[in-house]
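ping. complex inputs:
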Amino acid sequence: MAPHRTPDSSRRSDRSRRAIHDAALALVGEVGYARTTIEGIAARAGVGKQTIYRWWPSKAAVLMDAFLDLSARQAAEVDAAGADGDYGIPDTGDLEADLKLVLRATVDELNDPAAEAPTRALAAEGIIDPALGAQFVENLLDPQLQLYVTRLRAAQEAGEVRADVDPRVALELLIAPLTHRWLLRTLPLTHAYADAVVDHALRGLLVRP
Amino acid sequence: MAPHRTPDSSRRSDRSRRAIHDAALALVGEVGYARTTIEGIAARAGVGKQTIYRWWPSKAAVLMDAFLDLSARQAAEVDAAGADGDYGIPDTGDLEADLKLVLRATVDELNDPAAEAPTRALAAEGIIDPALGAQFVENLLDPQLQLYVTRLRAAQEAGEVRADVDPRVALELLIAPLTHRWLLRTLPLTHAYADAVVDHALRGLLVRP
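pong. complex structure:
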């Protein structure tokens, strides 16, 4: 029973939550995590700060939800475009093609200017603050990594990937080089690089490379 | 000609520089990069802030020198212990053994509690600030990565590594998984993990895995 949650008030709540998420992402991108406050988010979203405190215990919780919401929106966009993005790795029976598709989509997400500043702010904060970092890994990263474990296990069962490969280690050879290049800006993060990483990694994983 | 640089004043300068480096590393680890100031470094090092301004144009320059000095000291310790650490990859003719030695030493460096806080602070700041990140890559990271390129090229010339491997891509499959695990604290960073990364990566790189 939720007597006050009429369809109209529910839509208003959704609109407020989305406005708060967007304000949090924009602010943290502009002024950094340390200087982002609940008051600042409330002012930018056009809501009272009590509205935020009613729904979230801390700014870290707001930001984490904002990122989960952003990820879900990006996944929906990718789904609408007919690909699977990061949120389910296709299994066409061709591991190389499936991984290249997904890692190219990851390159596009990392290079998306709208997400870059808040993603860098959250990553930087997680590097300093172990508690925030653990939330980031648990809520955002691990669910994605698990998709690689699932896809690599399927390839093992299909006899495509060697039985002695540890999928949890193998996925880091695929993912970490992209993250490394993006975080440290060592060299351009391109589709060609994603393909090269898959080519180099797969030769060591496949039964018949 | 440096008429005032008698041996004694030179030793005093070296002591002051070292004190300033140590103060900068300690402060940035304790209060973060943003709240570290030239004044704070000077106070902690027991020198006047004009001493710092005479030698360095900015706090970023102080910190970068402090890290270069720290890296050089760590390399000297590793050398003294009879290994080569990050500063020259041995070439015993056995690429697997050489890489495992170096990557285990990297694991030890990353897990060193004395270096952890300032290294995380500098990494986090570089993720946010492209100019500082570029200095970090140019002065600290690229010289290390180049050692892997050199060692992998030698292994190609020796016929051990496939001719179609791009050393600059291959090294990221070796290095990035360790950095990824350390930065994001996804899973423990151990010698066993370093060995597993080498095993997985090398199978794809060797002519006869």
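Chain B has nine helices and no strands.
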